[in-house]
Amino acid sequence: MTFQPFELEQWQSEWEHTVEYNLADSSVRCAAVREVLGPDAVDRLLDQVLFYPQVNGTDALRARIAGLYPGATADQVLVTAGASEANQILCQALLSPGDEIVVMEPGYRQVWGIARNLGCTVRSFPLLPDQGWRPDLDALEAAVGPRTRMIAIVNPNNPTGSILTAEEAARITAIARKAGAWLHVDEVYRGTERLSDTETPSFWGGYERTVVVGSLSKAYGLAGLRVGWLVGPKDLVEAAWRRHEYVVIATAGPSMLLAELALEPATRGRLVARQRELSRRGWEGLERWIAASDGLVSAVPPAATALGFVRVHLDLSSVAVADAIRRRSSVLVAPGVYLGAEHHLRITHGYEHAPAALDRISTVLRDLKAGRS
Fold first, then answer.
1. Model pLDDT for residues 52-67, shown as the tens digit of each residue
2. Could you tell me which CATH number the domain at 7-31+269-363 has?
3. The dihedral of CA 364, 367, 369, 372: what is its sign?
4. Cβ within 8 Å of residue 81, ≥6 positions away
5. pLDDT digits (tens, 9 = 90+) for 318-371
6. Would you say domain 50-267 falls under CATH 3.30.565.10?
7. pTM across the whole model
């Protein structure tokens, strides 16, 4: 079986430290440790004993995470090394060769690639750009069959920033329930809403075979902690825990302490507000840049995230355009084909350096349009 590389992450890991400006990331400018620690917490961190921590996550952290999901309990939570580990071990626990899964596209293609590498058949249903990236749920229903083991979605969506309506979420849940399939929902962008301060409702609690994944990377701006989690039925959490022991043993103890502090209600509110301010201000700048592009680029305004999923109106592949931008302007953006949508670029705008980087991108795009090498 041919191994499916994680093309998006390979692109980023190869080039992100070679450019002056990185707009291929998917968060905002991350917070510093001092923005998480209160005066009393400094001593707690310095007194942290660097022995093996509690493998499934500390009791205090799992209780904090459970509190984010109505009706969840700490024993339904597993703390992982980022949402990426949660997705990996969930797929290992639930999928076998020959299973079928259905994924949302465009989307973060980790589950798509893991399933292919496990020998599964991967089908997809689209978000429709001409309808504001709304999901084609008739296509989802048509793609689900008797062998469908899992439906995997990202909500709010990476890369489009769209948010499912309550009616869309209910229909997706009903389709999963009818098929008896697991519903895997990556919710790492909950809390990044651009148009409202109301957090996107979780899928948790709507169906007994629902498992949700979260992390501190996006809404909190704490990607470097590498703390994520999954919330699911207790037997699935146990099965994932056994695989967690193979992969990392445990998430780092200092990271879990900082995560517990970050999820203290007042600190959590402050971190989310900080991220929303950076995201909203960043989108305003990206929107101005698009308007000044003379039709070279366009985008559907995102309802959440610090991402612009930009349509490039050139007869070139997204990899070719992104590579030209990297080589000529020392700016990194993410090719849309690696997220399931050609002729797009994913551009992060939650950084102070975004305007300068966008100016450089404009020069490259105009040169490409004029045929200048």
1. 999 999 999 999 999 9
2. 3.90.1150.10
3. negative
4. 226, 227, 228, 247, 248, 251, 252
5. 999 999 999 999 999 999 999 999 999 999 999 999 999 999 999 999 999 998
6. no
7. 0.96
Question: What string of DSSP letters covers 128-143?
Answer: EGGGTSEE-HHHHHHH
Q: Which residues contact 244 (CB under 8 A, 6 or more apart)?
A: 55, 56, 78, 80, 85, 89, 250
Report domain extents, the chain: 7-31+269-363, 50-267
Residue 100 pairs with which residues in a beta bridge? 121, 148
Q: How far is the C-alpha of 1 from the C-alpha of 245, rounded, in Å? A: 26
Q: What is the pLDDT of residue 40?
A: 83
Nearest-5° Cα angle at 344, 339 to 349: 90
Instruction: Spell out the long-range contacts of 351-356 with Cβ–Cβ below 8 A and sequence spacing 24 or more.
Output: 351/23, 351/28, 351/29, 351/278, 351/282, 352/29, 353/21, 354/21, 354/23, 354/282, 354/285, 354/286, 355/285, 355/289, 356/21
Report residue 40 CA to chain centroid gap. Answer: 32
pLDDT value at 39 more than 90? no
* Mean pLDDT value of segment 114-120: 97
Instruction: Answer yes or no: are the C-beta atoms of 368 and 343 closer than 8 Å.
Output: no
